[in-house]
Specification:
The chain is built from 16 helices and 8 strands. By secondary structure, it is an alpha+beta fold.
């Protein structure tokens, strides 16, 4: 328990220091203006003016404001509740505390609890006995709700709405900055993929040509008609070709990315396999081409993948099985295209060179085309590369979920920011306006008309007189306010007071008629003027 309290105290101190560090001259001037405005508004025409505070009392009031108002930034919820409890706090003081609490409190649970506790304090502090006039309880409760709504609830909700909107704007700015960073990363990824495309083309095209040069040079070196110098030159040429292939493989290893390209030159299609095989024959490769089935239109991605399968198979056969017979098969099956390259074992023993990255790239290329690649050794000791490719265009595989754009569903942004505050403010206004409207429509404001006053005469039975009197009085004019300036009531009589409907500005008061009953009869009907301020 002690450790938790210490941790909370340290967190509170750190938060307070952080707030002080963010103070700027503009904020200091703004807080000073709010402080002076609250003091002046509560001094006049606020409650201090009614108390005619002066001297040390006025100094104490101002000192309390100077101490409490700045603390609202550090303890917003506490100051709002305490502000509703202290007796000297004026309306402006409470409005400032409520607005700051709504602006500073982050948790909606804490906000609701703080507002509810403030309402409880306001109800408990309301003096139901010492009211300026004797109000009806319903009117008194409505006035209490109005005071709380206008002085506490509305400023609190306005502050909370502005805080939520500010948080929303900040979240949108953060999202925009994050999107700019992601755009830069995406641009970099596009450049890397372009490098991968270049690397793949270098491996598929240039590597194939270098392999053919090496094979052709090896075949020329076996010609008995050549001299020693010519054989040496051919050896240098073949060595240079092999070195170039190794260097090319090293470059490919640096440039190549995991994701292969999805668009390639349209000239390298399945129809170009004939030219590819012809070039291999010219280089001395024992290669044959077998075609079967009815030709079928192919999407460009599938057609190019078929060409790459044949090219990679010939390149691998020339490199790893020099001198071996190679067979390239292109067969149109009823539902798919099958491209196969198989070679016999090498005539010169074990294959030369280490496995490259061409098959990895080829596997990805076939996958992107929607096909399946099979690579493996034959029982006879040879090697086989076969691909099954669809005739229809297929969609590219989806990216993994962890690589998708996270900005599609913005995090930290509340789509309904501020809606709760607006709804709360609307509810408060609806209760206030609806309450006064309802009470205003009730038949309790009738006054004694002049016609009824003329028909009522002394000596009439009490029942007949009560039938002519209105069913209610003006609610804001209590009995005490209507009879305090009247003459003494007749001994033993019961008197009722009503406001007349005829009033005069020159009278400088309210005309009130008094009806006194004794022994079931009207014994007095008397009008007096209830003057204001007396």
């Amino acid at each position: 328990m002690t450790t938790a309290l210490r941790a909370r105290g340290e967190a509170f101190l750190a938060d307070t220091l952080a707030r002080f560090r963010t103070l700027t001259p503009v904020r200091l001037v703004g807080d000073l203006i709010v402080l002076v405005a609250a003091i002046l508004l509560d001094l006049w025409p606020g409650p201090w003016a009614e108390q005619r505070a002066s001297g040390w009392t006025l100094i104490a009031f101002v000192a309390a404001y100077v101490v409490l108002l700045p603390l609202r930034h550090v303890l917003p919820a506490t100051l709002m509740i305490v502000g509703a409890a202290i007796p000297f706090g004026g309306p402006a003081f409470m409005v400032v505390l409520s607005y700051t609490a709504g602006r500073r409190i982050e948790s909606w649970v804490k906000a609701v609890v703080s507002a509810a506790l403030t309402l409880v304090v306001v109800v408990l502090m309301w003096d139901w006995e010492a009211r300026p006039i004797d109000l009806d309880p319903v009117y008194a409760m409505l006035i209490l709700i109005t005071i709380f709504g206008v002085g506490v609830a509305l400023p609190f909700l306005v502050g909370r709405y502005l805080a939520q909107r500010e948080a929303l704007v900040q979240a949108m700015r953060d999202r925009e900055a994050r999107m700019r960073g992601e755009h830069k990363l995406l641009s970099r990824q596009v450049r890397l993929r372009e490098r991968s495309r270049i690397a793949q083309d270098m491996h598929d095209s240039l590597g194939h040509r270098l392999s053919l040069i090496s094979v052709h040079a090896g075949a020329l070196a076996m010609d008995p008609s050549l001299g020693d110098k010519q054989r040496e030159a051919i050896g240098v040429l073949r060595s240079a070709a092999l070195t170039g292939m190794e260097e090319l493989r090293a470059i490919i290893g640096v440039l190549r990315a995991e994701d292969g390209p999805d668009d390639d030159p349209a000239t390298r299609t399945v129809e170009s396999i004939d030219s590819l095989v012809g070039d291999a024959r010219k280089a001395g490769v024992l290669v044959s081409l077998v075609r079967g089935g009815q030709a079928h239109p192919l999407p460009s991605r599938v057609s190019h993948a078929a060409y790459r399968v044949a090219q990679e198979g010939l390149t691998n056969a020339s490199k790893h099985a020099p001198g071996a017979a190679v067979q390239v098969t292109v067969k149109y099956e009823p539902d798919a295209l099958v491209v196969e390259v198989r070679n016999n074992p090498s005539r010169h023993g074990s294959p030369g060179g280490s496995p490259g990255v061409g098959l990895i790239g080829l596997t990805e290329r076939v996958r992107l085309a929607g096909g399946i690649l099979h690579v493996g050794a034959l029982p006879s000791g040879g090697f086989r590369i076969a691909a099954v490719l669809p005739y229809e265009e297929t969609a590219l595989p989806d990216e993994p979920e962890d690589e998708q754009d996270e900005t599609e569903s913005p995090r930290g942004i509340r789509k309904w920011a501020g809606v709760g505050s607006i709804a709360g403010a609307t509810l408060v206004l609806a209760v206030i306006i609806g309450g006064f409207t309802y009470l205003g429509t009730q038949p309790v404001t009738d006054v004694v008309s002049q016609d009824s006053l003329d028909r009522i005469q002394e000596g009439q039975p009490e029942a007949d007189v009560m039938k002519l009197l209105p069913s209610g009085d003006e609610p804001l004019v209590a009995d005490g306010e209507r009879k305090s300036q009247a003459s003494p009531e007749p001994p033993g009589a019961r008197c009722v007071y009503h406001v007349t409907d005829e009033q005069s500005y020159l009278a400088k008061g309210t005309r009130v008629v008094r009806f006194c009953f004794r022994d079931g009869k009207l014994v007095e009907k008397k009008i007096h003027v209830q003057r204001t301020g007396q």
